[in-house]
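User: For documentation purposes, I need each entry recorded in a consistent format: the amino acid sequence on its own, followed directly by the corresponding structure tokens. There are two entries in this batch. Please keep commentary to a minimum and don't merge the entries.

Assistant: Recorded as requested. Entry 1:
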Amino acid sequence: MKKHSARVAPLSACNSPVLTLTKVEGEERPREPPGPAEAQAPAGTEPGGRTSRHRWTCSREQLRKVFWGVAVLLCVCASWAGSTQLARLTFKTFDAPFTLTWFATNWNFLFFPLYYAGHVCKSTEKQSVKQRYRECCRFFGDNGLTLKVFFTKAAPFGVLWTLTNYLYLHAIKKINATDASALFCCNKAFVFLLSWIVLRDRFMGVRIVAAILAIAGIVMMTYADGFHSHSVIGIALVVGSASMSALYKVLFKLLLGSAKFGEAALFLSILGVFNILFITCIPVILYFTRVEYWNSFDDIPWGNLCGFSILLLTFNIVLNFGIAVTYPTLMSLGIVLSVPVNAVVDHYTSQIVFNGVRVIAIVIIGLGFLLLLLPEEWDVWLIKLLTRLKVRKKEEPTESSGDLGAGPQNRSRRARPSFAR
């Protein structure tokens, strides 16, 4: 049997300043042979000869994935909500969103070293760092990672990554974290629209409805604060960040396709290297032009900066490599759950007013996000489920009438005396 290796696409920034979504190809697993009793019994019957009903079974592997999924879901929710709240707290004493973006993106360099450490601990066929690096470089073509490939296939994504993060962090200064995290969920709707137009993906009516809900949520969110200047600018920044994220994902799928775990880790590390080499000059310019200025390096809250970067790094690691232990849908649910978490924190730490319009907007955007999580064959699965329910309802009256008819006969047979000796 052929083994298909899992492949992931490092798609940045889905619902946080820095997010990476994953994608997995088909995977074949050998089916367990039936037991002796199952092999001898005819189809649709139990070992005792009675007709079996439809039962929902769950294998140990599925249970393991569900348990891991809950753990990953909580990790995604905590790291994303924590990074957003910590960034907002940092801006109270360190008003430099681009510098914070640059500092956090530098930590992407750790992706490949962490991946290689995991490879050494888990893999039976261990390779040296150089061998593993060369193997992962095949992702960029036969010639590997050349200077031309670096500037044509890595640098554009580094720019999009930085823009996505900066626009989101800058928006947090103007609007609360609840609105920002809810609005960023529209990123998934933008991805669908761009994929439908650019990649010619399959048209799905339910996803069009989800995109409409996302746009309606954006409008209602703007109306919730009465179209104040800060609110409108903040919402526009978040929508721009979500658009950059969607463009990143679609371009990655168009130009690079999908990547294995090692290839994804190497790609994200390369984005960190690009940030160090070519983006460092921008914070320096902003500092000397006093756009993002601080009196001394002692005034920088290094604890907040490092904590924010660690949370984002954890967030990206879980979303890139969590697919190895659970389902992608469960990981995406962690993004939605972070919105109410941010709402609870904002309720106790800021002066946010949860009026009816804001709550409806958040619910509409969340509903659109959940609709986009539906698989392409959701309608076929729904029809099968309804068919099973109808068959079960028809079987229950037939079995109950059969039991009533057989009851008196059994009782008369037991009560009848036997005179034959």
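Entry 2:
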Amino acid sequence: MSALNSSLLQNMSFVHPEYFYISGFSGIPFVKYYFIGLIFIYIIAVFGNSFVIFMICSDRSLHVPKYIGIFNLALADFGETNALIPNLIKTFLFDSQYISYEACLANMFFVFFFSSVQALTLVVLAYDRFIAICLPLRYHAIVSNSIMSVALSTVWSFSTALIGTTVILITRLSFCKTNIVKSYFCDHGPIYTMACNDNTINSVMAKLCTALLVYAPLIAIVGSYLGILLALSRITTWAGRLKALKTCVSHLLVVGIFFLPFLGTYIAAVTFSLHPNARIISTSLSSAIPPMLNPIIYVLNTKEFKDFVLKMLKKRSSVMVQASAK
């Protein structure tokens, strides 16, 4: 009977706060320098990913499976940057750490959605490299533009369904104790743990998302590269091995930049007491920096992108020469 009364009381006092207060950067010394750095990260990330998207759209020779995957990654990087960083910059510029309930849920969805697309796109690109090196003669039969497009459409659909369900389940929670979110954005974990009513399903979804969007992609990528290393060991010359491995360098760097900071922060938090300020700074940078570095890595390490840039520079210089001659 007491359990029934408790349940009725919770339903009667069901509370959706008008605002949440994002407390992540409160009390961090010299935080203004962090935000100034964040503005530069944002500008570079938006310009870099826009340029990659422009190159792939405008050059028909890049309309192949590998670059469709890179286009998708740049699109996800662009989306995540705009879902996360402008809200952080707003906190700095307007000294406003409040966000409405609806805006908070939207922020939660888009940040996790684009991060999900990033992680799963890296798996698709790992599959592309695995087929290219392990089954080179069958590559064009197995990995076509249509197959790559279907795989990436599945990534977007799966991410929408999983993250959408996770965020919708937040609406069943009552927040009658506090509206202070101990994170740097509307983070799922800190929000569902604030609830007054039963949050078991939210805890299950949090663990499921971690398993499907962190551990499973990482295991799949590691597995694909173990297969690639096995295939490389069968190549008789070191020159041949290095040539094949060189095609994976950009992808490996992007995978490392995406996964290692999160894993490092998690291991640090488990093995010793990590100061909350250090955790906030490290996790926020882990989300902000990869979208900035990914386009730089791909442009510097991809011959086709470098050729495109050189072609643009030559075209521009010739136009300037013609204009000055007139």
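Summary note for entry 2:
The first strand starts at residue 19 and ends at 22.
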